[in-house]
C-alpha cells in the first residue's frame, strides 16, 4: 500500500497529549481519515478522543474540510476550539492588525484609530481578570498558530469593513504570558455612525473567539487548565465520529 507522510502541529490543550511529529497515512487519505486515526489511538483518553471530534484542521495554514485530500509533506494543524486562501484586507482603511508579545498600549492605539470623518469609536478592551468563577488566577498564557491567526485577523477586518460599512478597524492580540490587569485583545472600530461601529465591534470579538487559532492557558493558585473554547462554526469543524478510515496508519502521535 502506498504511503504518504504529513507533519502534525497540535495546538492548545492537544499539545499536552500529542507532539509535533510526522504521521504516515495511506495515499489519498483525507482530513477526516487522519482525525479518525488519531481518535482511535487516543481511545485510552476518552476526553481527548471526544475533543478530536470537535476540532478544526488546517492544511498548510488554511482551514480544511473533512473531505480535503492530503498530500505528502502537508503541514496539518490540529486546532481545538479557540478561546478561536483568504481574501486580502483593505489596508488603506485598517488602522492596525497584529499579534504581539509586548504589552498593548490601549490608549495610544485608540488615539491613533480615529480620523476627522469619524463620528464614533467603539472599543473592546479585553483585560486579564484575577479569577474565574471565584478561582484565583495567577496569570494567563496565550499561544497561536501565528501565520494562520494573522491571516484570519486580516480577513475578519476586511469582512467587517464590507459587512458593516465602517471606516477603520484596529485589532491587536497579545501572546505569551500576561499578568492580571493587562490587555489580552484590543479592538477599535471607527465609523461615521455609532450603530455600525457597535455592531462591527461585537461581531469582530465574537467571531475572533470562534475562528482565530489562539488558545488560552490559565494558571490558578491550585493548578492550570486550558480554557474551554467555543465550538467552531459548522463549516469549519471536522467531525470524524462517523468516518471510516481508508486504511491503517503508522507514525508518532503521542
Structure description:
There is one protein chain. With 254 residues, this protein is an alpha+beta fold. The chain folds into two domains: 3-80 and 233-251, Ubiquitin-like (UB roll) (Roll); 94-226, Molybdopterin biosynthesis MoaE subunit (Aldehyde Oxidoreductase, domain 3), CATH 3.90.1170.40. Helix content is 25%, strand content 34%. The protein is built from five helices and 15 strands. It has helices at 31-41, 46-52, 106-113, 146-164, 194-211; strands at 3-10, 21-26, 56-59, 62-64, 75-79, 94-100, 120-127, 131-132, 135-144, 168-174, 176-179, 183-191, 214-220, 223-226, 250-251. The protein has a six-stranded mixed sheet with strand order 4-3-5-1-2-15, with no helix packed on it. Helix 1 (31-41) runs antiparallel to helix 2 and helix 4 (146-164) packs antiparallel against helix 5. The longest helix has 19 residues, at 146-164. The chain is globular and about 65 Å long. It starts with a strand and ends with a strand. Residues 84-92 and 240-254 have low confidence and may be disordered.
Secondary-structure map with pairings?
Elements: E1 3-10, E2 21-26, H1 31-41, H2 46-52, E3 56-59, E4 62-64, E5 75-79, E6 94-100, H3 106-113, E7 120-127, E8 131-132, E9 135-144, H4 146-164, E10 168-174, E11 176-179, E12 183-191, H5 194-211, E13 214-220, E14 223-226, E15 250-251
Parallel strand pairs: 1-5, 6-10
Antiparallel strand pairs: 1-2, 2-15, 3-4, 3-5, 7-12, 8-9, 9-11, 9-13, 10-12, 13-14
Helix pairs in contact: 1-2, 4-5
Amino acid at each position: 500500500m502506498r504511503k504518504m507522510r504529513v507533519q502534525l502541529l497540535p495546538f492548545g490543550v492537544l499539545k499536552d497529549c500529542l507532539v509535533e511529529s510526522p504521521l504516515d497515512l495511506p495515499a489519498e487519505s483525507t482530513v477526516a481519515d487522519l482525525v479518525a486515526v488519531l481518535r482511535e489511538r487516543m481511545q485510552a483518553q476518552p476526553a481527548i478522543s471526544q475533543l478530536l471530534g470537535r476540532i478544526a484542521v488546517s492544511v498548510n495554514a488554511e482551514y480544511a474540510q473533512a473531505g480535503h485530500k492530503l498530500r505528502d509533506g502537508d503541514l496539518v494543524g490540529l486546532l481545538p476550539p479557540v478561546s478561536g486562501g483568504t481574501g486580502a484586507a483593505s489596508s488603506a482603511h485598517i488602522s492596525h492588525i497584529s499579534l504581539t508579545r509586548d504589552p498593548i498600549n490601549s490608549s495610544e492605539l485608540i488615539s491613533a484609530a480615529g480620523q476627522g470623518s469619524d463620528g464614533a469609536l467603539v472599543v473592546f478592551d479585553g483585560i486579564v481578570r484575577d479569577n474565574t468563577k471565584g478561582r484565583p488566577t495567577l496569570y494567563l498564557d496565550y499561544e497561536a498558530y501565528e501565520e494562520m491567526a494573522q491571516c484570519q485577523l486580516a480577513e475578519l477586518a476586511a469582512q467587517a469593513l464590507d459587512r458593516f460599512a465602517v471606516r477603520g478597524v484596529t485589532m491587536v492580540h497579545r501572546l505569551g504570558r500576561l499578568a492580571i490587569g493587562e490587555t489580552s485583545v484590543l479592538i477599535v472600530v471607527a465609523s461615521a455612525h455609532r450603530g455600525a461601529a457597535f455592531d462591527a465591534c461585537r461581531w469582530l470579538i465574537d467571531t475572533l473567539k470562534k475562528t482565530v487559532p489562539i488558545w488560552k492557558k490559565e494558571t490558578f493558585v491550585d493548578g492550570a487548565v486550558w480554557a474551554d473554547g467555543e465550538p467552531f462554526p459548522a463549516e469549519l469543524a471536522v467531525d470524524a465520529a462517523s468516518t471510516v478510515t481508508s486504511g491503517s496508519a503508522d507514525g508518532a502521535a503521542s
